[in-house]
């Protein structure tokens, strides 16, 4: 709780005219402000270095270091750049208001001083400073709370994942070792438990991946994204031998980004493309690029079941799905992970789709120039 007898704020006045210092000192101390005063810019820098004030009233015309120079020095230092500075200028001085704000000033007061004007401008800046400090404090509290929640959810997710693997393992073991003692209904029940456990493990794994993506530090490099698409598509062909997919991949497209995170992006998009073309007679998936509005746009296009774009506004929201579990299996988390990774690369992702006419996902990453050459 604030002490009602404590000063309302610590103010430093800088002016080479003693009469001005005394006038402002009297005005502000009468209103319960703690006031310090110095006669030069050099003295001001020394005082601020020892103990920073809440607010500085800074005269512009001073010998050696003028107010503009003092302000620039203070704003260039980490520990003093947050201090609000109100410039002081006589009416007959040449006062460049634009320059005052350019160097970091927040307000100005003209001489001769009017008590009401001085008090109002000082109170406004101190009130803004107090609000800013409260916001920073709450942000720090929120960051700490989020870190605690992330650590908790990560631990719980890992524990759940391990428990589910144990349940699935014993379920499969029972159905194998006691197969001759179980009737068909029991076998169906155990198969159902196993399938649901497996799906739950996939959801937890995807949630862990989504959480990790937000906090992983990006390791940028230049890589051949066409080769990465080819590697993933070869793996998908081996895993889906029942469906012969025609992959059309534009060669030698290079990107600047985090290779491991972009692998996650491409795995999700290509796995989705394979999944949603699985009921297509001649499935085809294309990867390529084109230039638009100064950006290299990458795309993955399929000729699968597609979807209604008008109904897909929450497509990148976790657990939002456009197809039922019976139609196509999935957790509904993959595209959320993809969007977060793209955003962390300072890029964007969007789509075009029509029902039974396939879907195309477009995305771009922040661009990198090496020796003047855009990559």
Report on this model:
This protein is α/β, with parallel strands linked by helices. The protein has nine helices and 14 strands. The strands form four sheets. The protein has a five-stranded parallel β-sheet, with helices on both faces. The protein has a five-stranded mixed β-sheet with strand order 7-9-10-12-11, with helices on one face. A two-stranded antiparallel ribbon has the order 6-8. The longest helix is centred in the middle third of the chain and has 63 residues, at 115-177. 25% of the residues are buried. Mean pLDDT is 84; it is low at 369-375. This is histidine kinase. Residues 10-126 form the Response regulatory domain.
Task: Explain briefly what this protein structure is.
The protein is of the alpha/beta class and 375 residues long.
How many separate structural domains?
Answer: 3
Shape descriptor reads elongated
Largest sheet: 5 strands, parallel
CATH topology of the largest domain, by name, is Heat Shock Protein 90
* Mean of all residue-level pLDDT scores: 84
Write out the CATH superfamily name of the largest domain.
Histidine kinase-like ATPase, C-terminal domain
Number of extended strands? 14
CATH class of the largest domain: Alpha Beta
DSSP strand (E) fraction?
Answer: 15-25%
Low-confidence stretches: 369-375
Secondary-structure element order, as H and E? Answer: EHEHEHEHEHHEHEEHEEHEEEE
CATH level-two architecture of the largest domain: 2-Layer Sandwich
Number of helices: 9
Percent helix among the residues?
A: 40-55%
């Amino acid at each position: 709780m604030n002490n009602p007898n404590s000063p309302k704020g610590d103010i430093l006045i800088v002016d080479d005219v003693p009469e001005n210092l005394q006038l402002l000192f009297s005005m502000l101390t009468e209103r319960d402000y703690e006031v310090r005063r110095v006669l030069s810019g050099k003295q001001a820098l020394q005082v601020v270095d020892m103990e920073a004030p809440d607010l500085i009233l800074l005269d512009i015309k001073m010998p050696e270091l003028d107010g503009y120079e003092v302000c620039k020095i203070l704003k260039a230092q980490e520990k003093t750049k947050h201090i609000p500075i109100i410039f002081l200028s006589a009416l007959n001085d040449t006062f460049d208001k634009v320059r005052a704000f350019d160097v970091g000033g927040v307000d100005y007061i003209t001489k001769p001083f009017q008590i009401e004007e001085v008090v109002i401008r000082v109170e406004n800046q101190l009130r803004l400073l107090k609000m800013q400090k409260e916001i920073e404090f709450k942000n720090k509290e929120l960051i700490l709370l989020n870190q605690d929640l992330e650590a908790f959810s990560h631990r719980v997710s890992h524990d759940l994942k391990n428990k589910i693997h144990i349940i699935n393992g014993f379920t499969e073991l029972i159905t194998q070792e006691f197969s001759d003692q179980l009737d068909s209904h029991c076998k169906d029940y155990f198969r159902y438990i196993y399938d649901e456990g497996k799906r739950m493990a996939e959801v937890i794994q995807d949630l862990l991946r989504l959480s990790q993506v937000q906090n992983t530090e990006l390791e940028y490099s230049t890589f051949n994204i066409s080769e990465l698409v080819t590697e993933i598509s070869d793996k998908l062909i081996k895993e889906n031998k029942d469906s012969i997919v025609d992959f059309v991949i534009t060669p030698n497209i290079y990107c600047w980004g985090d290779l491991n995170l972009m692998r996650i992006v491409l795995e999700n998009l290509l796995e989705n493309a394979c999944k949603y073309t699985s009921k297509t007679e001649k499935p085809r998936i294309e990867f390529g690029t084109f230039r638009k509005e100064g950006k290299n746009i990458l795309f993955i296009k399929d000729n699968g079941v597609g979807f209604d774009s008008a109904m897909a506004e929450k497509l990148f929201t976790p657990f939002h799905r456009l197809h039922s579990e019976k139609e196509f299996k999935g957790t509904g988390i993959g595209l959320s992970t993809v969007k977060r990774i793209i955003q962390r690369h300072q890029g964007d992702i969007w789509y075009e789709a029509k029902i039974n006419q396939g879907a195309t996902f477009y995305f771009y990453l922040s661009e990198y120039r090496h020796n003047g050459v855009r990559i």
